[in-house]
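dumping this here so i dont lose it
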């Protein structure tokens, strides 16, 4: 196996996941959210481990290199998106100065804490206590930093003491369970960083053993196994919905003593099924579009909520109402919103690239 070669089906899977995430954030996929939570976020941690290059250099040096491409866009996009938030609160600034200033300060703290909720017993079910409606998807970037730090620790233990990564998965889950009993949500998703590191370790193991590309003697048996795996992920999603609990790895955290374990099981099986299916799309006409999305996850993650918010406002301005879930026009409203969010994000990314190229050309001249 060529460990250094990037696999197209990984970018295809990430592109499909980004469309799904946008749909969930836009409430355009309300019936698939619970299953998506078990599959989508774990996919990005698992593929991070899948693509990880273990270099022969100090862990802190590797972590610094890992942090730069994550924290620069995190704080850069947060600064830009905070301007949009301030535009929203300006009308309330004069009549409710104290309360508005409290909210502004709260959201500034939220940027640095990178959590939508601070207390574990917060049952409000919203990420907008400390995040704004524009920036809450960016929690993932700081979560990836702490997950990378935890994964580097696992790799160091593996080299220093010869501990197999698969053995260290169980301690990672136990540490996650312990951290989620704390009364406070630690910054940068630290409560769940070892669970994310366990998913990265699973991705690392999958890449090293070529599980996704191994040829089965019986093709029908392979697809039967993947079908059963997909059924297991669906069952976990239904279980999640039935218990009205949330295994989001953001501000909610995987609740319950069994939450992290179930999250890990679903977070390995689900992405493996999606990655295997995406192998079938390699070389097709649509694969290029999904790969482009998959290679632009950070800017899309940052931009799509703003596009969704302004789409909702424009719709309400011209129609005077927002369609309710289940109504006939709702699917037109949500489908159009999804298309505009996806292509609008891609258009802004393309425009940004054109502007940067133009500046480089002028500098060269």
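and the seq i came up w/
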């Amino acid at each position: 196996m060529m460990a250094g070669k990037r696999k197209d089906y990984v970018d295809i899977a990430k592109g499909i996941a980004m469309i799904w995430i946008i749909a969930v954030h836009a409430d355009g996929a309300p019936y698939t959210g619970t299953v998506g939570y078990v599959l989508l976020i774990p996919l990005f941690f698992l593929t991070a481990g899948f693509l990880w290059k273990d270099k022969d250099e100090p862990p802190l040096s590797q972590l610094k290199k890992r942090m730069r491409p994550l924290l620069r866009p995190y704080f850069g996009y947060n600064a830009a998106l905070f301007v949009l938030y301030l535009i929203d609160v300006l009308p309330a600034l004069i009549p409710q100065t104290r309360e508005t200033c409290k909210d502004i300060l709260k959201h500034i703290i939220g940027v640095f804490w990178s959590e939508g909720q601070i207390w574990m017993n917060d049952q409000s079910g919203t990420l907008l206590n400390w995040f704004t409606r524009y920036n809450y998807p960016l929690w993932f970037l700081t979560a990836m930093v702490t997950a990378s730090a935890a994964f580097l620790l696992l790799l160091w233990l593996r080299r220093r003491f010869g501990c197999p990564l698969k053995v260290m998965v169980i301690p990672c889950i136990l540490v996650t369970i312990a951290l989620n009993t704390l009364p406070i949500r630690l910054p940068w998703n630290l409560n769940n960083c070892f669970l994310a590191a366990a998913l990265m370790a699973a991705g690392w193991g999958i890449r090293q053993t070529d599980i996704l590309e191994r040829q089965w003697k019986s093709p029908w048996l392979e697809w039967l196994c993947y079908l059963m795996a997909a059924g297991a992920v669906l069952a976990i999603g239904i279980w999640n919905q039935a218990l009205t609990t949330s295994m989001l790895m953001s501000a909610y955290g995987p609740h319950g003593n069994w939450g992290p374990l179930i999250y890990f099981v679903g977070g390995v099986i689900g992405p493996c099924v999606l990655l295997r299916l995406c192998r079938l799309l390699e070389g097709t006409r649509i694969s290029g579009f999904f790969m482009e999305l998959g290679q632009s996850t950070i800017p899309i993650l940052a931009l799509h909520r703003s596009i969704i918010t302004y789409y909702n406002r424009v719709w309400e301005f011209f129609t005077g109402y927002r369609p309710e879930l289940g109504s006939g026009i709702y699917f037109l409203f949500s489908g159009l919103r999804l298309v505009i969010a996806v292509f609008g994000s891609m258009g802004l990314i393309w425009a940004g690239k054109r502007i940067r190229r133009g500046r480089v050309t002028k500098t060269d001249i």
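The longest helix spans residues 59-93.
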